[in-house]
């Protein structure tokens, strides 16, 4: 299905989007076809942990689809704030699911590669057993379970990984800043996953809705990288754009030399074959995707 065809399929669809100011939320707003009636709500307008407000808002708008792009995403902070992480990632998601159910809407719930423990050495399929190793992953898995219990077949869970966007705070923008500020950067090379542009995830969400896809699927950009590989690619892209960052030495280090409050899974490459087949959409290698939409470099 081409972009134009999925735009046509979505015409007249009412979509309620939570977390509209986040990386994926902004990408969804940017890509939303004109014919969609969109209610895009940032945290200041709709706090998903406020059950009454969620019920009221959904009942009033009566969407066909709810897209939950809201989440507590601070992986390290979650170790010290588990109640807040669960209040948003489990209870907030459940509030949206209950509200969606009451107006017979379907829901897209975005989840994470961090529901897995990272012990595999080949890509995780949607049927692999989750076993999170940090609070963030536990709270996201609890959100999957809670929303599935409520919505059953009317739910699409899309697990993704290593999301970045040209704006906001993420690995890409952080590296671009540090490359300019520092002479040396040490980046972990023994955690492997796939960088994913928020816009390519947004496109897959819209394609999925246009085809009424439900169930649990995985989506990232194509290919595999370590954080070190990702950092080197960012540096090379920055140099090719004329940014003066060639003198910054980027060195690979093991995870044990970069201790963080939250443990991180070593390997979380996701198997995308099921959704690729269902949507007839294969995506792009992460590096080409990044270079295709260069961020504003300064
Ligand atoms: N980022 C990644 O690498 C990554 C990887 C795998 C999966 N995911 C998943 O992808 C989804 C989108 O993530 P993202 O990268 O777009 O994250 P993000 O940029 O941190 O956006 C999340 C948004 O949710 C909002 N939010 C937080 N608590 C809320 C609440 N109680 N009510 C309403 N909104 C609330 C945040 O607002 P404030 O900024 O005001 O708090 C923020 O705008 C999430 O489900 C995340 O778990 C992300």
TrEMBL record:
Pathway note: Carbohydrate biosynthesis; dTDP-L-rhamnose biosynthesis
GO cellular component terms given for this protein: cytosol
Enzyme class: oxidoreductase
Pfam families: RmlD_sub_bind (PF04321)
Cofactor note as given: Binds 1 Mg(2+) ion per monomer.
UniProt-listed Enzyme Commission number(s): 1.1.1.133
Gene Ontology biological-process entries: dTDP-rhamnose biosynthetic process; O antigen biosynthetic process
Protein name: dTDP-4-dehydrorhamnose reductase
């Amino acid at each position: 299905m081409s972009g134009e065809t999925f735009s046509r399929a979505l015409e007249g669809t009412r979509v309620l989007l939570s977390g509209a100011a986040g990386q994926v939320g902004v990408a969804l707003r940017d890509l939303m076809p004109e014919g969609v009636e969109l209610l895009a709500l940032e945290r200041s307008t709709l706090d998903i942990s406020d059950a009454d407000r969620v019920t009221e808002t959904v009942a009033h708008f009566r969407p066909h689809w709810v897209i939950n792009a809201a989440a507590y995403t601070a992986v390290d902070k979650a170790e010290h704030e588990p109640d807040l992480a669960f209040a948003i990632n489990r209870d907030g998601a459940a509030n949206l699911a209950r509200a969606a159910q009451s107006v017979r809407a379907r829901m897209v719930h975005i989840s994470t590669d961090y529901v897995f423990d990272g012990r595999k050495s080949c890509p995780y399929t949607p049927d692999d057993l989750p076993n999170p190793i940090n609070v963030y992953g536990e709270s996201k898995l609890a959100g999957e379970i809670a929303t599935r219990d409520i919505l059953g077949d009317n739910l699409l869970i899309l697990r993704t990984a290593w999301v970045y966007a040209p704006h906001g705070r993420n690995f890409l923008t952080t590296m671009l800043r540090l490359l300019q500020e520092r002479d040396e950067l040490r980046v972990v090379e023994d955690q492997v996953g796939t960088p994913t542009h928020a816009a390519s995830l947004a496109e897959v969400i819209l394609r999925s809705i246009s085809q009424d896809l439900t169930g649990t699927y995985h989506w990232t950009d194509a290919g595999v990288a370590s954080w070190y590989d990702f950092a080197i690619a960012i540096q090379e892209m920055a140099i090719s754009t004329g940014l003066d960052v060639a003198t910054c030495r980027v060195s690979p280090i093991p995870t044990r030399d970069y201790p963080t409050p939250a443990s991180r899974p070593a390997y979380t490459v996701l198997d995308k074959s099921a959704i690729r087949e269902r949507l007839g959409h294969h995506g792009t290698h992460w590096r080409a995707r990044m270079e295709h939409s260069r961020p504003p470099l300064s």
